[in-house]
Automatic annotation (TrEMBL):
GO terms for molecular function: vanillate monooxygenase activity. Its EC number is 1.14.13.82. This is Vanillate O-demethylase ferredoxin subunit. Residues 4-106 form the FAD-binding FR-type domain. InterPro entries: 2Fe-2S_ferredoxin-like_sf (IPR036010), 2Fe-2S_ferredoxin-type (IPR001041), 2Fe2S_fd_BS (IPR006058), Beta-grasp_dom_sf (IPR012675), FAD-bd_FR_type (IPR017927), FNR_nucleotide-bd (IPR039261), MRET (IPR050415), Riboflavin_synthase-like_b-brl (IPR017938). Keywords: 2Fe-2S, Flavoprotein, Iron, Iron-sulfur, Metal-binding, Oxidoreductase. Residues 235-317 form the 2Fe-2S ferredoxin-type domain.
Length: 317
């Protein structure tokens, strides 16, 4: 686990790509190339008050001269989107991390079905570019209220043509059962999706009815998991490299306790949505409360900020 590089990048372009969304293009003022990234990656944007927000990169990963993010203004959100809309104009400086990816195209997939709802289209745009660049079969589905509210609609139409379908609620809404039925019926097809909680809940429910294996279902969320009935319990955490064991009370996180003991550990959201504090674990039963790790990753990885443990766990730090 290492701290993330923070760069001072300049806003070289700002475009309104829907009534609610602005696209911000960032470039290093001196270096011709930015750190490489893969489709589905996101960056941390550090705000003036020290808060950090994650935004997906939504361009072509081959173009390392720029990073592009798209931000929907949320009037009742946590303030990050309002700050971007009101302060990041052309020529502004943004404090931005190197990219991280918790959401990527699977190498074993024979076909990629990409679904983005509203602003959730941003990570799957880069996936569409990457699949096209690789020459791999894919289709991109954009779900929106109306065509005016589909971010990057004109660009996507030019880039992907018949592989793009825009589903508008005021025209012909997406038929999710039919879409997922096609994925479930083709063993090499994988579904990738990102969008509002209602879309994610619907897709998981349909996938469950169709018995679509979790290994072929991939999603990204930027909202913390909510379980009002969960009651946290204390546990013990042992650091493999030092052999030291620490007590984690029910009202604190493992991340907090280890930092208090003097360990320098990276983190960003501290809500279980970004993956900055993910570490390896063994010899323990982890209660995963993040929205980052898939079923395979959860067998040996955990998020220190929100995950809990039954009894004791050993972590690789």
């Amino acid at each position: 686990m290492t701290a993330r590089l923070i760069m001072k990048l300049q806003v070289v372009d700002r475009q309104r790509v829907s009534p609610e969304v602005v696209a911000i293009t960032l470039k290093h003022p001196l270096r011709p190339e930015l750190p490489a990234w893969t489709a589905g990656a996101h960056v941390d944007l550090r705000l003036p008050d020290g808060k950090i927000r994650q935004y997906s990169l939504c361009g072509d990963p081959r173009d390392r001269s720029i990073y592009r993010i798209a931000v929907k203004r949320e009037e009742v959100g946590r303030g990050g989107s309002r700050w971007v809309h009101e302060n990041l104009g052309t020529g502004s400086i943004a404090h931005c991390s190197a990219p991280r990816s918790n959401f990527s195209l699977r190498a074993d997939a024979r076909r990629h079905v990409l679904v983005g709802g509203g602003i959730g289209v941003t990570p799957v745009i880069s996936m569409a570019y990457e699949a096209r660049n690789r020459g791999e079969p894919f289709e991109l589905h954009v779900l929106c209220r109306s065509r005016d509210f589909a971010p990057f609609a004109e660009e996507l139409d030019k880039a992907f043509g018949q592989r793009l379908t825009i589903h508008c609620d005021d025209e012909k809404p997406a038929d999710l059962p039919e879409l997922l039925k096609g994925v479930a019926g083709e063993s090499g097809a994988h579904l990738y999706f990102c969008g509002p909680s209602g879309l994610n809940t619907a897709i998981h429910a349909i996938a469950g009815k169709l018995k679509l294996p979790d290994g072929r279902l991939h999603h990204e969320l930027f909202q913390a998991a909510v379980d009002e009935n969960f009651v946290p319990e204390p546990f013990e955490i042992t650091v493999a490299t030092s052999g030291r064991t620490f007590h984690v009370p029910s009202d604190r996180s493992a991340l907090d306790v280890l930092r208090e003991a003097g360990m320098v550990l990276p983190s960003s959201c501290e809500l279980g949505v970004c993956g900055a504090c993910v570490c390896d674990y063994r010899d323990g039963e982890v209660i995963h409360r993040d929205v980052v790790l898939d079923a395979d990753a959860r067998k040996n990885k955990m998020t220190l900020c929100v995950s809990r443990v039954r009894g004791r766990v050993t972590v690789g730090l």
